[in-house]
Amino acid sequence: MKKLIYLITMVIAFSGCTNDFEETNTNPYQISGESLKQDFNHVGAFYSSMLSQIFGNQVDHNLTNVTFAQHLATPTPFVGGVNNTTYYIRWNGYWAREYNNVMAPAKQVIDIAAADGYDVFVEWANLIRIVSMSRVTTYYGPILYTNYGSTGSALYDSEETLYNAFFSDLDRIISVFSANTDYVGLTNFDASYGGDVSKWAKYANSLRLQLAMRISKVAPDVAKTQGEKAMADPVGLIETNADNFNISLYGVKFHPAQICFEWGDTRMSATMESILIGYKDNRIAPFFDPVTDMSLVTDHPDYPYKGIRNGAELVAKDDRLSFSTIDISFNDPAKVTKRKVMSADEVFFIKAEAALRGWSGAGDAQANYEAGVRASFELWGAGGVDAYLADNTSLPIDYNDPVAAGAVNDFVNQITTTVAWDEAASNEIKLEKIITQKWIAAYTNEMEAWVDYRRTGYPKLPPVYQNSSNADWGVIPDGEAIKRMPFVNTEREGNAAGVADATAKLGGPDEIGTRLWWDTGGPNF
Question: What Gene3D superfamilies does this protein's entry cite (predicted)?
Answer without folding.
Answer: 1.25.40.390
